[in-house]
Amino acid sequence: MFLKVIWVFVALNLQFCLNETPPAPVVDLGYARYQGYYDSAYDVNIYKGIRYAAPPTGKLRWQLPQSPAQNRSQIIQATKYGSQCPQSGDGPGPQKTAPTGSEDCLFMNIFSPTNKTGLPILFWIHGGGYGQANAAFDPSPQIHTNGNSFVIVAIQYRLGAFGFLSSAEFAKSGVLNTGVHDMYFALQWVQEHIHLFGGDPTKVTIAGESAGGGSVMLLGMAYGGGANASLTAGSNNQHRDYNGTRPTEYYHRFAESAGCSEDRIKTNESVFDCLVSADTVTLQNASDYVSTTGLYGQWAFIPVTDGTLIRERPTDQLLKGGKLNGVRVLSASNSNDGPFFTPRGIENENDFTDFLTLNYPSLSKENMTNILALYSVPPNASNVLINTDGENPPYATTNSGWAYGWEQAATNLYAETTFGCPSYWLADAYAKKQGGKAWHYQFSVPPGQHGLDLDPLLQSTDTQTEGMDKVFRTAFQQIWGNFIVRGDPTLSTMQISAAKQGNITAAGTGMWPQWEGKPGSDWMLNLNMTGGQPIIETATLDGISVNVTRYVVGNDTSSQPLAADFKVAEGSSWEGGRGKRCQLWADLGPWILE
């Protein structure tokens, strides 16, 4: 048995309108029977809101997921998405006035081509900082683009404090990383039941974006790499010990906000007992309050190293030869992943070091010197908003389409520590694993922000928003489809020849080399567009307006045609030496995870 993996990077919440449609076949899962509906536009059967685990409520709060109860009295109509899990925002932000989810949320959605069996599976984990979003979206266009050659399973998992509450005290009674346990349980569900939807349980690609990508990485690391039913993809560099300073602080703040601090609980009642018996509105508000009063652009409750499910920090297990589940990976990041996670107003070196100290208070003076040696802004750096090409100055260390100077230095630092470098480390780990293979790409279409790649990956290839034409969208979806179906993302000669414009040849078989895990030979694919008419739009970040340029199909003959432009590049030298900066962050692991 093997599982393949894919990584992509940010949060998604698309809705699908259901009109009168023919029913799909009834599927008998043993514990319940479900009937979905048929989508004639893409020739797929869709099953929404399938329960894969019992409601994690009451005594099951903060415990391992359990099998659903028997419910065979009727056929359940699987035509509507299940309730989303309780939502918690990132900091800083206003506390929500009312809950925006239900604890009874362990549902999945399945999209299955009709009249086919033995198909590979794409197992999708949504992003959202481990605190937000859901699986309410329809990826049928991606299946259709790839000739209806695979099944997609999209899952939900416990979020915020419900999925990632942590401290030494909590661990005595509760289960750490329950959100990750939900994912693992859903994978086991797939192993048992997916054949009923035309899928082959021995061919599973685990995929996700942002926190979903980090989750796939954790599944690849699960149980020290000794599990058979999981693989890897995704990462971040904010992975703390379960009893660390910040997880413990957030635990106590959560208990206090929920009215369960030690000085307020009843005699002979523990803090944990109080939390288990608390009403859901109180807990949802407490989770959101703690998370939205945390660090800028970050969520309070995230996965931790627990010693059982997740036994090592990612940098240790990925870069020091630790065991990993799975055999191959396609990792990626975006060209401008950092703007929404970095505060505005960083104007000089002092502001920059204050930003570092706030995020990583354990850094030593020597650590700070080493960071500044690679991230300092030279006095003659240009003060212009410009999207770098990655291979020539100005680099993303000082300039982007979002910021310049020290502001951009901080934005790029966050993007590299949280997304760019982990995507490199993940590729390194599988490139060096015996029998492993790795490919890497960067999504560089302006403005390149975190999550921009989701629309062209999942929506119709005919869409032309966000500066991407049909050739780009088709090739992008085929790259993923090829990886899912045959374990190799490169485009075939037929797929390349079908493109009547643009340049996607670099993505072809024999043209896009595998990532080798050694400087100078870490080849990646840069996915970009060229031409088009520039459109300046305003984005608001932390109350400050930022002008951002994207490119669309021109309305006059003077603009160059908007066309796909794929190129092979060397990863370690990218953006003026990303490989050296990533090595620095790998070395600093013990100091940045307090």
Structure description:
With 594 residues, the chain is an alpha/beta fold. The chain has 2 domains: 2-57 and 75-86 and 100-326, 3-Layer(aba) Sandwich (Rossmann fold), CATH 3.40.50.1820; 339-592, no CATH class. It is 30% helix and 19% strand. The strands form 3 sheets. Strands 1, 2, 3, 4, 5, 6, 7, 8, 9, 12, 13, 14 and 17 form a 13-stranded mixed beta sheet that branches. A two-stranded parallel ribbon has the order 10-11. Strand 7 (119-125), helix 1 and strand 8 form a beta-alpha-beta unit. Helix 11 crosses helix 15. The longest helix is centred in the last third of the chain and has 28 residues, at 405-432. It starts with a strand and ends with a helix.
| Terminal residue distance | 38 Å
- Categorize the overall geometry: globular
Task: Tell me which CATH architecture of the largest domain applies here.
Answer: 3-Layer(aba) Sandwich
User: Roughly what is the average pLDDT, rounded to an integer?
Assistant: 90
What about the largest sheet?
13 strands, mixed
What is the domain tally?
A: 2
Q: What's the number of extended β-strand segments?
A: 17
Number of helices: 16
What is the fold's blueprint, element by element?
Elements lengths: L1 E5 L16 E6 L3 E8 L4 E8 L19 E7 L29 E7 L5 E7 L14 H6 L5 E5 L4 H5 L13 H16 L5 E10 L2 H15 L14 E2 L3 H13 L13 H7 L2 H13 L11 E2 L8 H6 L8 E7 L14 H11 L5 H11 L29 H28 L4 E7 L10 H5 L11 H17 L6 H5 L25 E8 L2 E9 L2 E9 L10 E8 L3 H14 L1 H4 L2
Parallel strand pairs: 1-9, 1-12, 3-5, 7-8, 7-9, 10-11, 12-13, 13-14
Antiparallel strand pairs: 2-3, 3-4, 4-6, 6-8, 14-17, 15-16
